[in-house]
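User: My advisor, Dr. K., asked me to get a structural model of this assembly before our group meeting. I'm new to this, so sorry if the format is off. These are the inputs:
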Amino acid sequence: MAARRWYGRDRGLTTRMTLTMLGLGVIYVVFISALIAAGVSAVAVLVIAGAIALVQLLLGDKLALASMRARVTEPHEAPELHAMIERLCQLNDIPKPKVAIADTEVPNAFAAGHSRKSATVCVTTGIMARLEPRELEGVIAHELAHIANRDVVVMTVAGFLATVAGLLVRMGVYSGMMGGGGRDRRDNGAAVFLIVVLVSIVVYIVSFLLLRALSRYREFAADRGAAIMTGAPAQLAAALAHISGDMARIPTKDLRAAEGMNAFFIIPAVSRGFSLSSLVSTHPPVEKRIERLLAMQAQLDANPGATL
Amino acid sequence: MGLFDILRGQRTPKRADLDQLFALGSAALTLDAGLGLRTTGRAGVCFKSIEAGEFERLVREIEELLDATSSSSGTVVSRHDDELGFSWVVVNDPDMEDLVTTTHVVSRSLEDRGFSERLLCAVFGFDGELGQVDLVYAYKRGNFYPFAPREGRRRDNALELRLKSALGADLPIEPELERWYPVWEAPVGR
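Assistant: The format is fine. Below is the predicted structure of the whole assembly, which you can bring to the meeting.
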C-alpha cells in the first residue's frame, strides 16, 4: 500500500506520478529477485515482507496522524464532536476510537489504526467549518464503517498476500528455469534472471491494480455502512459534493500539506476522473459515490425501513 | 462478526433481545430497597431520526396499540427530537411494569418497521436521595449500564459502580466500562 502523492490537477503529472510509483515497485521487484538470485532464502525475504506489513499495521496510524499534525482531543475540548461520535459508535457496536483534530483548511477526514480497540478518527478543522452537523455525521459514519469493517487490516493483509504471491511466482519461475535444461548454469544465469524479473513485474502490476480495485470496493462498502447507520445517505452525498467542490478551489499549498495521505482520506485531494487514474485510484470517483448514495436515499424515501 | 463479513465489508445485522427489558421489574425493586432510588415514571426509546411523517405515524400506531391493550392504562407516549439528530419516543407512566411493557412495545414496532439497525438505546429514569441515575439498555449490545449525569456534563462514576454491583444479579450489565456511553439530557427526568 504505497501512498499516492498528488500535486494538483495536472494530467501529465498524474501520469508521471503513476509511472513513478510503478517504477518504484519495479525496482523493489528487481531487488527481491536479485536477493533470491544471490541465494538469499525465500524464507528470509518472506520474513522481511511480513515485518514491513507488521510495521505498517502497528505504526501506520501514528505516522498518518503525525504527518497531518493531528492532535488527539479529550471530550471537553470538542463536546459536540465527541457526543456525535459516541452515539455513532453505539449504533455501530464498536468501541469509541480516539478522536483527533488536524488544524488545516483541507476539508477531510480519515480513520487509522490496526484494530477496533486502537482506532483513531481524525477530522480537519476545514471539514468541521464547511459541513452542516448532519453532513459531518455522514462523513464520520463513513469513517467508523471503515473501522467496523476492519479495512486497515484487510488492506494491509491484502498487500502482504500480494507480496507473497509475487514471491511464490518468482521462486517457481526461478527453480523451473534452473532445474531444467541441463546446460551450463553460468551462461543461463543472466537469462534466467531477466525472465524472473519480467514475470515478477507483470505479477506486481496485476496485484497493484487488484489492490486498488479492492480499496475502491471498500469505499463503497463504507458509504453503504454509513447510509445504514444514519438512515440519511443524502447527507453524506451532500457532504461529498461540498468537499469535492471545495477541494478544487483550495490553493495548491494546502494540497501539498495533504500529500501522501490520500489512501486514508474520504476524498483524495483531487477528484477528477481520467482513465489512468481511475484504474489506480484508491477511491471511486465522487460522482459515482454520490449516485449510489442517492439511489439508497430513494429506496429509503419509498420505504423508510428498507434494507439497503 | 465472522471472517466472511469482514471480507465482504458488510455486517449481518443483529436483532436485539428485547425480552431482557422485562428484567427491569426486579431491578427496580432492588434499587428501591438497596439505594432508595425510584422510577421517575419516564422512559425513552432513542433511535436515529426518521422522517417526520413516518415518526408521526409510528407514534399514532403505538397509541392505538396502547388503547387496544387497556392493561397499561394511563400510559402517555410523546415524541421528542434532540439536538444530536436522534429521535425519542418518551413513555410516561408512574408504574414501572407498565413503563417496561410499553417500552417493549415501542422497540418492537420500530424493529418491525425495519429500524433495528438504527435503534440506539432505551433509557429508564430513576432518582432519590443519591440524585438522578438512568439505566440504559443498549440494543446493539443486549445489556444494561447505569448512567448518573451531574451538573456540567460530569458523571457520578462512584454511584454508577455501586449500581453495577447492586444490580449484577438482576440485569446483564455491560462488562466493558468504555461502552458505558453517556446519554446527556435524556428526556426521562422528573
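One thing worth pointing out at the meeting: The beta strands of chain A are 70-73, 98-102, 109-112, 120-124.

User: Perfect, thanks a lot.
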